[in-house]
Design a protein that fits this description.
The chain is mainly alpha-helical. It has one domain (23-113): Orthogonal Bundle (Helix Hairpins), CATH 1.10.287.3610. Helices cover 86% and strands 0% of the residues. It contains 4 helices and no strands. The chain has helices spanning 4-21, 23-42, 46-76, 82-113. Helix 1 (4-21) crosses helix 2 (23-42) and helix 2 runs antiparallel to helix 3 (46-76). The longest helix is centred in the last third of the chain and has 32 residues, at 82-113. The N and C termini lie far apart (47 Å). 10% of the residues are buried.
Length: 117
């Protein structure tokens, strides 16, 4: 129990720092903030609403990890390096996959709400 509270504070500090310094994190946090209430409008059941919200949380989680990878790469070598570029590109690809998956979940839920599925 003694480790849980300090770990929680560290997590909060990381969130605050990322929100202050990273545009992509701010954009995806805003998307989550708008998406949560919208999930209750679009979703037709509790499970669909949960899937809609989780898809947005996943985007934000993967963006946090991608940001960590980029910052670590920049710390290791601020110069342009082909291997570092590939690593950063793969992190960006992970973000894209999460975004495309979330879009598919939202489109399917919207189609269900409109009676197409």
């Amino acid at each position: 129990m003694d480790r849980i509270y300090p770990a929680f504070l560290n997590s909060c500090a990381g969130i605050v720092y990322a929100l202050r310094t990273e545009r992509a994190i701010r954009q995806e946090a805003a998307l989550l903030a708008a998406g949560v209430p919208l999930a209750f409008v679009v979703g037709t059941s509790g499970w669909i609403r949960l899937a809609l919200i989780i898809s947005l949380v996943a985007i934000l989680c993967i963006e946090f990890l991608n940001t960590c990878i980029e910052k670590l790469c920049d710390h290791i070598t601020p110069e342009r390096h082909e291997t570092i570029k590939v690593i950063k590109d793969m992190g960006s690809s992970a973000c894209f996959c999460a975004q495309a998956s979330a879009a598919a979940v939202w489109l399917l839920a919207l189609a269900g709400r409109l009676g197409y599925v």
